[in-house]
């Protein structure tokens, strides 16, 4: 599965989930361009629940 630079793990990894991209605040754009952390999706995969 394809991951984005801002992802901490691959989608579906136990103990992870989607979160709003902190770089672009979920808009998918940063400084007028596609956000490089989320590849324009506005979401990243992060650890949840202290994982």
TrEMBL record:
It comes from the Bacteria. InterPro entries: HSP_DnaJ_Cys-rich_dom_sf. Residues 1-21 are annotated as: Disordered. This is DnaJ-class molecular chaperone. It comes from Sphingomonas xinjiangensis.
């Amino acid at each position: 599965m394809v991951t984005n630079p801002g992802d901490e793990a691959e989608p579906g990894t136990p103990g992870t989930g989607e979160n709003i991209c902190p770089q672009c605040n979920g808009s998918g754009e940063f400084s007028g361009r596609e956000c490089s952390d989320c590849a324009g999706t506005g979401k990243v995969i992060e650890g949840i629940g202290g994982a």
